[in-house]
Amino acid sequence: MDFFERQHQARKKTGVLVFLFGVAVLLISLLNFLIIAAVVPLVGDGRKREGLFSTLQDPLLAMSVVLGTFVLISLAGLYRKSQLSDGGSSIASMMGGRLVNMASTDPEEQKLMNVVEEMSIAASVPMPEVYVMSEEKAINAFAAGYTVDDAVIGVTDGCMRRLSRDELQGVIAHEFSHILNQDMRLNLRLVAVVFGLFVMSQLGRLMMRIGFSSSGNRSSRSRNEGGGAAVIGIAGLGIMVTGGLGILMGNLIKSAVSRQREYLADSSAVQYTRNPEGLAGALKKIGALSTGSRLLTPHAEEASHMFFGNGMRESWFSFTA
Predict the structure, then answer these.
(1) Which amino acids are annotated catalytic?
(2) CA–CA separation, 131 vs 121, rounded Å?
(3) What distance in Å separates the CA atoms of residue 312 and residue 317, rounded to the nearest whole number?
């Protein structure tokens, strides 16, 4: 196996996918402009049909909508990032993990800590904190954090107890690759951007409810005001749809980025352990287990791109895995 070439290819493809993420956000911004440009001529009386074309050619409106969309997504993303400011420990806590230390008397936890310490030495990085998701019986793991100093490794209870030492070593080596290749920082940024798209969708939903409810409650004497409220509702519906489309596109690109970084981590794990059978054995056990790598935590979707295995239910479309 030429794992050095695999590492190079994975890094190259990741850069392209991150660029596509930015393009997707730009497209969502342009769609919002088209929606606003379409509903603006509906406000007021006596508007001619050509008013639509004049709004489409309005550079100030285009700049305001596109810039506003970017600002909204950025502010929401920064808010989500601030919630995760503690780095890996905040993700581990969100996933329901509990901190494990070297003084544990549980033999399985001792095995886990010894393996993490060995991989820490092999990778020449400080030993990260280790969390176990005690309620999760499936086989899965993740690495999270902004830097090697605040990095953590989390494993499910099933991963710790069901895997042999060699298999666990392969999984932990895989997660150390995410630390060394700075995948953790990228993963947290992806969480922030997708959250921003989610907030935009929710804002559109709020506008739609307010607009349509206000329009329905207007009397005949305030028909013009009711029409304006309906326009707000229509605009909100459009923004909610574009936000939902953005979430879909974001999750697809997030999954594709994750897949490339998983390829990179797999090849790096082989480089660290020189034992591909351990990693292969862990994957075989996931395939044989009824629950596989699926997680119970409600936050699994938000952090799905961080996990060793697919933490979600099987999708109809394999490219979303």
Answers:
(1) 175
(2) 19
(3) 13
